[in-house]
Specification:
Two copies of one chain form a homodimer. With 200 residues, chain A is mainly alpha-helical. The first copy, chain A, has one domain: Hypothetical protein af1432 (Orthogonal Bundle), CATH 1.10.3210.10. Helices cover 66% and strands 4% of the residues of chain A. Chain A contains eleven helices and two strands; from the N terminus they run αββαααααααααα. Chain A has a two-stranded antiparallel sheet with strand order 1-2. The first copy, chain A, is globular. The interface between A and B is large, with 43 and 43 residues.
Chain lengths: 200, 200
C-alpha cells in the first residue's frame, strides 16, 4: 500500500515537471525570455510570504495562500497558458481547466487528490479571503513584470490602460493597499509611454 | 513608514526575479534545457506539500519546510549555482553564500530580513527535522531528473554511482523511506547504464 502510494506521488511529481515548459506572455524582468508557469508560481509563493500583511482580511492563513499559488497553474500542463487579455480564450478557460484538473489530480492518492482539487477550486472561485489574496498576487506579479520591462508584453499585444485597470481592479478585493500601489505605477506607466493612454 | 516598507518588499520581489536566470546542471525531464533555480524551488515546494508524511520525525511543520525550500537558493542570484559534485566549488560555497545572503536579505524590512536569514541558516545547518527533510527533498529532486533523463547530467560530468550514493545518503536523515526509494532507482540506473558502475 505504502509503496503504491509513494509511486503515485512520485509519478505526479515527475508529471508536473512539464509546467516548466509552459510559457506565459510575460517577460522576465531582464527581458531575456518569456516566463514559464513554474517559476511564476514560485514568485507568487515568495510574494505571499512577504506581503501577507496587506491581505484585505486580518489573520489570513498564509500557508493556504501558498498552497493555492503553488498549484494554481498546474492545469496549464494540459491547456497551456491563456493570455489574460484574450477574451475568446478566457471565455472557455474555466471549462477546459476544470477537465484538465480532473485528469491531473486523479494521479494522486485519493486524499491528496481531494485536497488539491479543493484548493484549486477555492482559488478559481475566489470564495475565501485567502483565495482573493492569492488572486490579487497573481494579478500584481505580471503588472510588476510589465512595468519593469517598459511594458514589453502590453505593447506586443496592444493592451490599453483601460484593459489593465478593468481586468486587475479586483486586486482591491484581496489586498486594497496593493491595488493602491498598482494604480500608482499603472499611471506612471501611462506617463512613461509603456502603456497606451486611456481614451479621453 | 508603510509606504517605505512596501517599497522595500517590492524591491526585493523585483530583485529575486533574477533567480529565474540562474541555471543548474540538471536537465528538465524532457531534456529540452537546463533547469533554473526558481522553478527548481517551486518543484521542491510541491514535493514538500506531497511528501511530508515521509519525514523522519512525525508532525513536522510543513509550512516551515516550504518556506525554507522557497528561499534556499536565493543566494545563487549572486554566487550562481555550485555543481553538487564539484569538490573545489563546494569547499568555499558556505562562505560565499553567507556573504550573498547578508547582501540580499538586507533589502528587506528588518523583521523579514531576520526571518529569512534564520530560515536560510536553519536550512544550511540542517539543525532541525524540518531542515533535514527540506535538504532530503533538495537531494531527491535532481536524482529524479537524472533518472528520467537517462542520467544526462551524471554522464555529462562523469559522476559515478559511488559519488551519487555518498553525497546523497543523508537523505536518510530527513526521510528514510525516500532514501530507500532513491537507493532502488540508483541501483536501477546503474543496471540500465545511466550511471557508471561502482568499482568492484
Amino acid at each position: 500500500m505504502t509503496a503504491d502510494r509513494l509511486a503515485r506521488q512520485i509519478r505526479f511529481i515527475v508529471e508536473i515537471d512539464k509546467l516548466k515548459g509552459v510559457f506565459r506572455r510575460t517577460y522576465l524582468m531582464d527581458r531575456s525570455r518569456h516566463e514559464n508557469s513554474a517559476e511564476h508560481s514560485w514568485h507568487l509563493a515568495m510574494m505571499a510570504l512577504l506581503l501577507g500583511e496587506y491581505a484585505a482580511e486580518r489573520d489570513i492563513d498564509v500557508f493556504r495562500v501558498i498552497k493555492m499559488v503553488l498549484i494554481h497553474d498546474l492545469v496549464e500542463i494540459e491547456t497551456g497558458d491563456t493570455f489574460f487579455y484574450d477574451q475568446a480564450g478566457q471565455a472557455d478557460r474555466p471549462e477546459r481547466e476544470r477537465l484538465a484538473a480532473e485528469r491531473l489530480f486523479v494521479l494522486l492518492p485519493a486524499d491528496q487528490e481531494s485536497e488539491f482539487r479543493k484548493l484549486w477550486e477555492e482559488f478559481e472561485s475566489r470564495s475565501t479571503s485567502e483565495a482573493r489574496f492569492a488572486a490579487a498576487l497573481d494579478r500584481l506579479q505580471p503588472l510588476l513584470h510589465n512595468y519593469h520591462t517598459q511594458g514589453a508584453a502590453w505593447r506586443e499585444h496592444g493592451v490599453t490602460a483601460e484593459q489593465v485597470i478593468s481586468r486587475n481592479r479586483h486586486i482591491a478585493e484581496g489586498a486594497p493597499q496593493l491595488w493602491d500601489y498598482a494604480e500608482r505605477f499603472i499611471r506612471d506607466a501611462v506617463e512613461k509611454g509603456y502603456l497606451t493612454k486611456l481614451n479621453t
